[in-house]
Write a structure and sequence with these properties.
By secondary structure, the protein is mainly β. It contains two helices and 15 strands. A hairpin with an 8-residue loop joins strand 14 and strand 15. It is globular, with a radius of gyration of 20 Å. The N terminus is likely disordered.
Length: 317
């Protein structure tokens, strides 16, 4: 998914999220802004398209982060079962900085299974996530729900809960954001490894950015992201559903994938439809035309009939 940029901290660092909500002034302090609108308009239609792009990107970055740290821990400690009861450094995940993991084997099975916990401690750990160079600091607790097999062994199913502990932060050259809340990460493979799926779902995940212009809070609620990869023909599908709130504008946008996004290899999606609805029931529908163009349709009064459509390039979102 080549053009889904600024994934992990894209929501928070954009400040107003790239949302097509609000065209009035902002307070710059993270509070509600009564002077701004809370709907989609012709003036901010293209920004609305960026919302869909950022949303998919954030979901994919969360999934890629989860997969990378879990697999890195498992591969690095596969031959050190007896020593995994204490915090151990994990190599091969951070390009600089450190990652230590404490594994609590609740059933003493000698391997990760339902009910076990992993505590990941990041210290200036730099990783590349969705083509972003990011630094991670803080602690994440992971609780195993379902562990049926493991990647590399054909068919498998994983379901693990991620919880960000107080003080967890992600930073880049653009700024930094603290995270709270969590999500459930799922990973599975079917058809003997011919396809695999990554998923992230949750009820609450909050990003708080503090910078020179103030403090901003972005909150994902009742969200679900699912990415499926077909290895033989290098095709992927993606979908995102849920809502996102931005404190600077006091606005919530609900997003719903009505047609799966589909693409090939690392190209942009070549098909897919996402509907975004703002607080005042105004709507923008993002329809993929091909892997270079999308159509944005504005229904400002929410009556089901678009008043305006524009065609834009993926690279402009």
């Amino acid at each position: 998914m080549r053009n889904m940029r600024r994934g992990w901290i894209g929501l928070a660092l954009v400040g107003v999220l790239g949302l097509g909500v609000g065209c009035g002034g902002s307070s710059g302090n993270g509070g509600d802004d009564s002077s701004g609108t809370t709907g989609f308009t012709a003036a901010n239609l293209e920004k609305a398209g960026a919302t869909g792009n950022e949303t998919l990107s954030t979901g994919y970055s969360l999934a890629e982060f989860s997969q990378k740290v879990l697999l890195g821990w498992y591969l690095d400690t596969a031959e050190k079962t007896a020593a995994r009861a204490v915090a151990l450094p994990v190599s091969g995940v951070c390009t600089s900085g450190t990652l230590d993991v404490a594994f609590t084997d609740a059933d003493e099975s000698g391997d990760l299974s339902a009910g076990d916990t992993l505590v990941f401690a990041f210290s200036a750990c730099r990783m590349t996530i969705d083509d972003e160079d990011l630094q991670f600091d803080g602690t994440v607790t992971v609780t195993a729900g379902v562990v049926n097999g493991w990647p590399g062994g054909g068919t498998y199913t994983l379901e693990l809960g991620f919880s960000f502990q107080s003080g967890f932060s992600v930073s880049s050259t653009d700024g930094s954001s603290s995270l709270s809340g969590g999500f459930t990460y799922t990973e599975s493979s079917a058809s003997g490894g011919l396809s695999y799926q990554l998923g992230v779902r949750g009820e609450h995940l909050e990003f708080v950015e503090t910078g020179d212009s103030g403090t901003y809070t972005t909150r994902l609620s009742d969200f679900s992201f699912v990415f499926t990869f077909y290895t033989a023909d290098e095709v992927y599908t993606a979908e995102a559903d849920g809502s996102v709130y931005d404190s600077d504008l006091g606005a919530t946008v609900f997003f719903d994938t009505t047609t799966l996004f589909r693409g090939t290899s690392d190209e942009n999606p070549s098909e897919g439809v996402m509907e975004m609805t703002a607080d005042d029931n105004s709507r923008v529908t993002l329809t993929v035309l091909d892997n270079t163009r999308v159509e944005l349709a504005l229904d400002a009064d929410g009556d089901g009939t678009p008043e305006q459509t524009v065609e834009v390039l993926w690279d402009d979102l």
